[in-house]
Amino acid sequence: MDRQKSMEKGLLRKSLSIRERKFPNDDLFLETGLSRKSPRDITKRSPRDIIRKSPRDIIKKAQNDDGECRVTAIVFLSTFVAVFGSFCTGCGAGFSSGAQSGITKDLSLSVAEYSMFASVLTLGGLIGAVFSGKVADVLGRKRTMLFCEAFCLTGWLAVALAEDALWLDCGRLLLGIGVGLFSYVIPVYIAEIAPKHVRGSFVFANQLLQNCGIALFFIIGNFIPWRWLAIVGFVPCVLHVFCLFFIPESPRWLAKKGRDKECRSALQRLRGPDVDISREANTIRDTIELSELDGETRMAELFQRRYAYPLLIGVGLMFLQQLSGSSGVTYYASSLFQKGGFPSAIGTSVIATIMVPKAMLGTIIVDKLGRRTLLMSSCAAMCLSALLLSVSYGFESFGILPDLTPILTCIGVLGHIVSFAMGMGGLPWIIMAEIFPMNVKVSAGTLVTVTNWLFGWVIV
Q1: What is the distance between the alpha carbons of residues 68 and 76, in angstroms, rounded to a whole number?
Q2: Exposed site from 257, 264, 288, 439, fewest CB < 10 Å?
Q3: Which is nearest to 134 in space by CA: 299, 262, 265, 21?
C-alpha cells in the first residue's frame, strides 16, 4: 500500500513539473495570441487538478522571480549601445533646424526646396518602416542595427558633400531609411533583453538618447557650418557600429530561429554567470512553441477581432503622436522662433538645455507613475503649449501686444517640445513593444511604425 501511494505521488509530481514547465505563467497566452481557458473549463477540473497550483499562484511566482532578477552590467551596456542608435536618430532630426540658414544661403534653396529636404527624412523613415519588421526578423536585432548604420553613414556623407538639392535629398532619404529601421528594432531589442521591472525605463531611454542628439545639434548648429555639422552626425554612427560587436543578440530571436544553445548562452550572459536561467529559457522556448501553433500572422490577418484592441492602441497612439505636430515643431524650431520674433539661437539653446533633464525625469518615473498617467499628462501639456503658440501667432498677425508675442512663442515652442519628450515621444514605442502577441509582433509592429512615419511625413 505504501509503495502504491509513493508511486502515485511520484507520478503526480512529474505531471506537475511538466505542467509548470509548459505553462510557467499566464503571460504565455497573451504573448502568443491564444485565449485563456474559460471559467467553464476550469470548473470541469478533476480532483487531482484541484490539488495542482492555481494559475494565479503560478503567475505570482513567475512575476516574483522576474521582479527579483537583477540588472547586470551587460544589460546596461546592451541597452546603452542599442539606444545610441536613437542618438543618431536625434542628430538627424535636429540637423534641419540648425542647418537651415546655412544650406539655403550656400545652395540657394527656396523655402519649398528646403521643406522638401527636411521632410525627405520622414519619407525615408516610412520606407524603412515598411520593411523594418521583416528585416529584423530575418537578420536579427543586432545585425539589423548594423544594417541601419550602413544607410545612415552613406546618408551623412552625401549631405556633407552635396553641391545641389538632389544630393541633399538623396542623402537625407538614405538617412531616413536607416532611422525608420531603427525606430522599430531598438524598442523591440530592449524589450526582449530587459527584465520586466525595468523594461519601461530602459525602452524610454530610447527617447532620452534621441533628445540628447536633438539637443546637441540645436546647440552646435548655432556655431559651426552645416557641412561640418553633417560630419559631426557621421561620427556617432561609426562609434555605434564599433560598439554593436560587443553586445549579445536577442535571446528571443535566437530561440525563434531554433538556435537554443546560442539562446541560453546569450541569456546567461545577460543575467549573469551565477544565475539559474533555466526557468526563463523554458518560458521563452514555450512561448515560441505556442506562437508557432497558428504560424506567423500575415498583415491581412491582423484585422481580426482578437487583435482589434491592441492594434487600435498601437496605431492610435502613433497617429496622435504625429498629429500633435511634434515632428514639425522639432524640424522647424528655428523658423518658429523667428516667426514669433524670438532669437532662434537663444530659443534652440534653451530647448537643448531643458530637453535632456526632462527626458531623464520621464525615464525615472515611467515605471512608477504608469504608462497611462504619464501619457495623459504629456498630452495635456502639449495641448496647452500648442494653444499658447497659436495665440502668440494670432497676436503677431493682428499686431496685438507686440512685446508679449516673443515670450509666448518661446513658452509655446519650449513647452511643446519638453512635454513631448516627457511622455508622448517615447511611451508609444514602449507600449508597442509590450502589447502585441508574439505571433503578430512583426506584422503589427511594422504597421504601427509605418503609421508613425506616414503621418510624420505629412506633418513635416
Answers
A1: 16
A2: 257
A3: 299
Specify the pLDDT at position 298. Answer: 64
The identity of residue 270, as a single letter, is: L
What are the grid coordinates assigned to 115, written together? 521643406
Long-range residue pairs from 45-50, CB within 8 A, at least 24 positions apart, any chain: 48/12
Which phi and psi angles does 418 have, rounded to 5°?
-70, -45
- How many C-beta neighbours within 10 Å does residue 118 have? 22
Q: What is the identity of the amino acid at 165?
A: A
pLDDT mean by block of 10 residues, the chain; 460 residues: 49 42 42 42 39 40 47 88 89 83 85 84 86 87 93 93 89 92 87 79 77 85 88 92 92 88 89 85 80 62 80 87 82 81 81 75 70 85 89 83 83 85 78 74 79 82
Q: Residue with C-alpha cell 540658414? A: 101
Contact 192, 251 (CB under 8 A): yes
Work out the burial of residue 273: count CB atoms within 10 Å of its CB; fewer than 13 is exposed, 13-18 middle, 19 or more buried: exposed
The one-letter code for the residue type at 220 is I
